């Protein structure tokens, strides 16, 4: 059913935490099939599956041993084919995660490299130490760890953009490219409609391997969110070449096909929007998403800044929660207002599983945490694993309807809050997802945008020439000069958020 849908509403599924059908405590492909009716009822256009490939799960499935094979913990090839068929039958496209920056250190390629196979070593970045035994340069991993890991068997260092268990691939190598092309075409042949590319802006490095210079105040000022990670202390001049990477994604487009919907993750906070524009010119990706909105909680200022810096919002995917970011459901904000604000923004919209119920971010005890980044940053970092706590399908049931066994992360949801969200917010999400498509907000142009304190005021012009005005108050701010007529839709603190949050949209 592949056709590239403009500005799709995409529902992200983290399979491990979606629905368990075997009692293992881990979600699986049959569980996704069981719950697809719920997803389709929201009116979204597509589902994005986080990795289901063979993996030791050190980094939640983003450390891949085999890009062509499904991990048995999730199911079989037949299960996957049934999932694709069921999704297509419900009018949903299927997008798969592509984690191309690195493999698991358990990959046969990497294990062969350790054993002395130089051809396989060339698939990665190995270098000799300096004469004093230290790493080749000062590069860091994006998790704030040293970028280089010593291997005593090869007596060399290898480079990792993330964990030491995730050695970075040499994506310039022709054999690596041939492997990527083949596995992408294989998934496309099985009915996959598109791909999400993990850390797409981090693919390539300067082969001179020079030291990165220190970050400047100007660069630091552009970093969204906290800057306690030492990775932000460098100006990443040599370990990340986004300009070359933007050209590289033309290969991904060729391998995936013109009718595939392609979007990517930008990990470069200090130039996020500008890079998104580079990666989404014709012949490249359809859209890129950045961390600007979630790290600033969808604030009026962050939305206005994104609009000012982007050539077109059609090329920026909007989102607030994911498997990598804390859930935005919280008591000091109205989730309904934030949802309506996101629905009104043109361009793709990524909705994370459970967001439609206004699920909050669960607190986990340290002894329950398995994510290496969460443990590395404990207790100061925002944490990723809280957003991966399994879905509470039935808040009154043992196992919350997710599993009959012991869940891989503890379930401790507020049963009454979940029930309220399932009764109210899910219907609201379905309504606004339909409105964004039917009213043409998804493909509209922004003709005016103002952020003043707690208030965001946006005017859109749709493709048929209609004008719409959306006003969103994030607290105490009161907008001025509102339209006289009744709004087409209103959002307030229906989900238990604090008063003072309001949102409304008028057909101006």
From TrEMBL:
Pfam family, one: Alpha-amylase
InterPro entries reported for this sequence: GH, GH13_cat_dom, O16G_dom_2
GO molecular-function terms, A-Z: alpha-amylase activity
Residues in Glycosyl hydrolase family 13 catalytic domain copies: 12-388
GO-annotated biological processes: oligosaccharide catabolic process
Highest rank taxon of the organism: Bacteria
Family of the protein in this entry: Belongs to the glycosyl hydrolase 13 family.
Protein name, as recorded: Alpha-glucosidase
